[in-house]
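Notes continue from the previous slide.

Worked example: a multi-chain complex. Inputs as given:
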Amino acid sequence: MISRSLSRFVVDSQWRDMPEALRHEAKRSVVNVIGTALGGSSDAATRRTAGTLAPFSAPAEATIIGRREQLNCLDAAFVNALAGNVFDFDDTHPGTIIHPSAPVAPPLFAFAQRRPMSGADLLHAFILGVEIECRLGNAVSPFHYKKGWHITATCGVFGAAAAIGKVLGLDETRMLWALGNASAQSCGLVETLGTMAKSVGVGQSARGGLLAALLAQNGVEGPERPLEGPRGFLQVMGSDPDLAGLTEGLGERWELLRNTYKPYPCGVVLNPVIDAVLSLREQSHVPPERIAGIRVLGHPLLGERADRPAVTTGREAQVSAQHAVAVAWIDGRAGVTQFSDERVKAQDVLALRGKVSVHQEAGHSVDGARVEITLVDGTVLDHVVKAARGSTDNPLSDAEISEKFRTLAGYGCPGFDPEPLLDALWRLDEAPDAGRVIALSAFG
Amino acid sequence: MISRSLSRFVVDSQWRDMPEALRHEAKRSVVNVIGTALGGSSDAATRRTAGTLAPFSAPAEATIIGRREQLNCLDAAFVNALAGNVFDFDDTHPGTIIHPSAPVAPPLFAFAQRRPMSGADLLHAFILGVEIECRLGNAVSPFHYKKGWHITATCGVFGAAAAIGKVLGLDETRMLWALGNASAQSCGLVETLGTMAKSVGVGQSARGGLLAALLAQNGVEGPERPLEGPRGFLQVMGSDPDLAGLTEGLGERWELLRNTYKPYPCGVVLNPVIDAVLSLREQSHVPPERIAGIRVLGHPLLGERADRPAVTTGREAQVSAQHAVAVAWIDGRAGVTQFSDERVKAQDVLALRGKVSVHQEAGHSVDGARVEITLVDGTVLDHVVKAARGSTDNPLSDAEISEKFRTLAGYGCPGFDPEPLLDALWRLDEAPDAGRVIALSAFG
């Protein structure tokens, strides 16, 4: 019944019933993920994957965000989802740690270049895809990720299938088959995190979901209960899954309204730490050689995830409090450049990194932290952050998301003018042809 | 160490070290799976999937077995693996119930049409791919399948990646990346069995493995321990996996030598039952209306898997002892036709099916069974089978595999002359160009 109920919900949903706040959040999510895809467009993982797929991909119908080449919509979904998530700088669904947009938005945009659809239709399908993806994530959390499943990929394939099924106008049974064909492809292991193989799972979730829906449209049938059946997704990849929550309040509360956007390209636990460092720096910028030591104090998860004094690559540095503090103090910012392999190896960063230590302190949520800088002369600078930028209680403004977009475009595609694309994305709900909007992301 | 050791094993292996019996078994496996792919080439799942992929597939470089269209090697691997396994009439690795050849041989043949390789190179890579696939299956069995993983798909992707990595000549590190990129794509749920969605998982395992190796060749890096790492395949998808067995006796004992080939297109537990029915029928063929009842007696698994009196589709009938007995008695054979939707609904089969009952009896292995037919006049006919045709102790002969190939070709591709292809496959180890061999399977 769960698989059918979710299928019926997606099929029956109407754009006119989407609240204005939800429509707006969908646009914020889309702007954010297209921005991170621009930023990731020239990364080695993106280039090598696009290069591997290109000889097999026709017709050249869909834009690779921030790049010159075009691939077919399946492969473009793969590469753009990969690029959107490659730095883990995309959005975060609290509770599940799913990055919701990367597996769902790219297949929709790629498919829009094959089969024209309005921006409103795309946003509506996006909202529904994220709803299915994140409800499945809720049902299997926290077991699923802890066990070793890369939840963005494993749940993302269902979101992509539901979203594409919606724009295809599948009926209830074919929507169910789309979820079944997605269940046969649900994959992604946490062991691959920190390597390019992570992105293979994320790319495949987007491509696999799109394919799942196309197969269903063409009559490739799935089981009656791909999700809740005894050998289906929830039982096999969950442990005592929360089945009731899957269909509770469908159409009344929306998972996308809980979405958050990262201000910094690193683990979310580091957000309040970087906020505190940048605030202290603004108050009084002291050269690193005058600093005796920096203590970072916070929630136990901060230490568990990010107490990492020795790092050698940008990817590792994304989960190093020591690196984040040092580079933010020296550079006065914490953008993609600050987490590059080069910056990780820089002598000045290395020197300051050695002075940073991480400690637990009672009274902090995961969104809060305290940073205490002791100078050589004995002075102590101290700053507490309660709710980090980008957290549920302190969300990025639209303007900040736009600024993040521009910065990422500049990083991934130097010379690209991001304004026409950015403007079109903020007005996506009015666009008659979503495919023409994403075509503006071509570059090179 | 396990992932590296297996990678090194594949990289270092030499064709000259492959024993003659192993080379011959590889050819038997290949003949068998190309035969089942011919048989499955016109099935709806095959047609609909090929039709879905065709608009996105270029160049037209690789044969779809038993069909006219050509797709790129990635998509051909998908469709041919699907077709080879769609009836579950392909090979079976005892202990794991993996169908070893479908995920591994099709990507090799498809890739051979893109990048020429000798038949010996293909067979060598096939042997190694099956070795990785089945050793992984051993390590996670029996938990893995029981939990709900479709083991052919989940392990097949590694076999395909290793095999393609071998023909690409990857070095040890890139072979390791290939396994890592495969780990990010390992998927397939038992809930999908009995539906076309099962085949989506199997097709994806072949395609995903081929892609994993191509990505590795192009520098898409994976983790150091994709298999044995704490969040890797063995720990996440296994339970207390047998790690020692993974590398024990590598290059000395070969999993492929344990491979078995089905004489009938149905669950393996039914093999001895059908053998017994056909033997009794040969002794004295009694018209169904003179039969009062048929008792099938065997191992507990027979009842668990195949005591299914009411069936409505061919796919269900593949695991129904009642159907198998009835149709074998009436038709005098048990081929693909006997497990078609039409035959399942036929009145004569239905009538006799109602007289068949399944019972447990001590002393039978899963390869054995007894069938007892009581006639209306009170006469009792009785036959015991110890080792069914196709079991480890009673393997199909080369001639029987050839005959199965011809029958399947006739079923899936009426009018196709199977002899040139069959002859070329039996001499595959001498072929300078394996791609030209598989090209002989085009039809229509």
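Summary box: The beta strands of chain A are 62-63, 70-71, 291-298, 356-360, 369-375, 380-385. The CA atoms of residues 267 and 319 of chain A lie 5 Å apart.
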